[in-house]
């Protein structure tokens, strides 16, 4: 049976060139970088190269900070809790403006901060599934707002948010801006200084780097306190012995991902659109978001009358890995929150399936997926208790 991996928004294969670059830091150059002896100091040049790649890869200025974390979840926690300690707990600016479709590593932190005195406002999305500038202007009170936190691209739909104009407005009002760029980096151009954000989170395993390593961009002068204290690593901004192999891998993966942006925008998009067109040719289907307003690799599709979980298990049995947009909750599936937030009817929101490609996806894999998908949907609808051909 052919195996086809179409869940790249969950995690990606490590680029073989990245794996090769990481290998020597396990059994040859394994010293602690903070050690003064040669086993420690010999890894410093590679760390410098990695940091240079990270700065260049996300468009950070020399005076800014880029810290290496364990993952984007840590990066998001770090930003939100730093703003809480440095602004919300010390001033009358108690508000965080965010969206209803953020990743839980933003939304759940906001819920925790709300239990500790923060005021969280979720900005309503427009019919395209994004926050538009007029909405931000309507809700942003600079006297009361500590931070705006809006993701660059949504992990389930791939819908891209207008970060440049939103961040510019927040800055004009003297309000800090954070973007979770996890699903944008490696898919579309990301430049922190160009868009003017104060904080930007990312994660290596989303762009063919290793799992367990992420990063956080901090604009010069942006308020900050560490999430992790206990040592002078990362200039005191993130304590803990540095994951040298992961840092080297993430730096190279980011450089390779940016080299491949043209390929993402053309070939990956072409294969995504080929699959999307085949999905839309199946009766009673829906794809969320206008494709030109999405990152090039993602499809969130609904197949009326077919539970999302049932379809991904059927595909899985035939070697195809996809995921549901919807979060499962015990035996009763929750409707996909993103689809609910952008107004898709709740019945359809139970039928969401996400397909996310990468630069390693082949045309043969897409052709196989189309063939299997057509048959799976047909078969599942024949036994569906809710599907009535419209
Ligand atoms: C937008 C976004 N932010 C943060 C994270 C967390 O990153 P990590 O801590 O480095 O893993 C994810 C992971 N998103 C997904 C993980 O599995 N399916 C997903 O869509 C994400 O999509």
Instruction: Profile the largest sheet.
Output: 7 strands, mixed
The beta-strand count equals: 14
State the strand order across the main sheet.
Answer: 2-8-7-6-5-3-4
Distinct ligands? the ligand Cc1ncc(COP(=O)(O)O)c(CNc2co[nH]c2=O)c1O
Shape: globular
Instruction: Outline the low-pLDDT stretches.
Output: 326-332
Tally of helical runs: 15
How far from one another are the termini?
34 Å
* Beta-strand fraction estimate: 5-15%
Helix-strand string: EHHHHEHEHEHEHEHEEHHEEHEEEHHEH
Quaternary structure: single chain
Mean pLDDT: 94
Q: Calculate Rg over CA atoms.
A: 22 Å
User: What is the helix content?
Assistant: 25-40%
Q: Structural class of the helix and strand makeup?
A: alpha/beta
Keywords: Iron, Iron-sulfur, Metal-binding, Pyridoxal phosphate, Transferase
GO molecular function: cysteine desulfurase activity; iron-sulfur cluster binding; metal ion binding
Catalytic activity: (sulfur carrier)-H + L-cysteine = (sulfur carrier)-SH + L-alanine
InterPro entries: Aminotrans_V_dom (IPR000192), Aminotrans_V_PyrdxlP_BS (IPR020578), Cys_deSase_NifS_proteobacteria (IPR017773), Cysteine_dSase (IPR016454), PyrdxlP-dep_Trfase (IPR015424), PyrdxlP-dep_Trfase_major (IPR015421), PyrdxlP-dep_Trfase_small (IPR015422)
Features:
globular, EC 2.8.1.7, alpha/beta, binds the ligand Cc1ncc(COP(=O)(O)O)c(CNc2co[nH]c2=O)c1O, 39% helix, three-stranded antiparallel β-sheet, 390 residues, Cys_deSase_NifS_proteobacteria, seven-stranded mixed β-sheet, cysteine desulfurase, transferase
């Amino acid at each position: 049976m052919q195996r086809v991996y179409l869940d790249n928004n969950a995690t990606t294969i490590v680029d073989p060139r990245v794996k090769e670059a990481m290998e020597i830091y396990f059994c040859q150059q394994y010293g602690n970088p903070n050690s003064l002896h040669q086993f420690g100091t010999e890894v410093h040049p590679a760390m410098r190269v990695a940091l240079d790649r990270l700065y260049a890869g996300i468009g950070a200025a020399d005076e800014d900070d880029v810290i290496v974390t364990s993952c984007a979840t840590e990066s998001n926690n770090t930003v939100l809790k730093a703003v809480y300690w440095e602004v919300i707990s010390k001033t009358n600016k108690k508000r965080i403006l965010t969206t209803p479709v953020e990743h839980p590593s933003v939304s759940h932190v906001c819920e925790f901060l709300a239990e500790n005195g923060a005021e969280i406002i979720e900005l309503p999305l427009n019919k395209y599934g994004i926050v538009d500038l007029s909405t931000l202007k309507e809700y942003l009170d600079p006297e009361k707002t500590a931070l705006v936190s809006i993701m660059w691209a949504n992990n389930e739909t791939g819908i891209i948010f207008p970060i440049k104009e939103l961040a510019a407005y927040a800055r004009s009002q003297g309000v800090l801006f954070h973007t979770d760029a996890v699903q944008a980096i490696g898919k579309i151009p990301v430049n922190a200084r160009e868009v003017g954000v104060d904080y930007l989170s990312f994660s290596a395993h989303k762009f063919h780097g290793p799992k367990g390593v992420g990063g956080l961009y901090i604009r010069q002068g942006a308020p900050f306190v560490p999430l992790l204290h206990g040592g002078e690593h990362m200039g005191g901004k993130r304590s803990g012995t540095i994951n040298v192999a992961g840092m080297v891998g993430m730096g190279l993966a980011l450089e390779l991902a940016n080299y491949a942006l043209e390929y993402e925008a053309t070939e990956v998009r072409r294969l995504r659109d080929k699959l999307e067109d085949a999905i839309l040719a199946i009766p009673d289907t829906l794809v969320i978001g206008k494709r030109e307003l999405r990152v090039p690799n993602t499809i969130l599709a609904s197949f009326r009358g077919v539970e999302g979980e049932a379809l991904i298990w059927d595909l899985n049995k035939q070697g195809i890995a996809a995921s549901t947009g919807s979060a499962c909750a015990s035996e009763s599936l929750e409707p996909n929150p993103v689809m609910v937030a952008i107004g898709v009817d709740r019945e359809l929101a139970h039928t969401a399936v996400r397909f996310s490609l990468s630069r390693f996806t082949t045309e043969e894999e897409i052709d196989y997926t189309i063939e299997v998908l057509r048959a799976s949907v047909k078969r599942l609808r024949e036994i569906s208790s809710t599907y009535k051909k419209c």
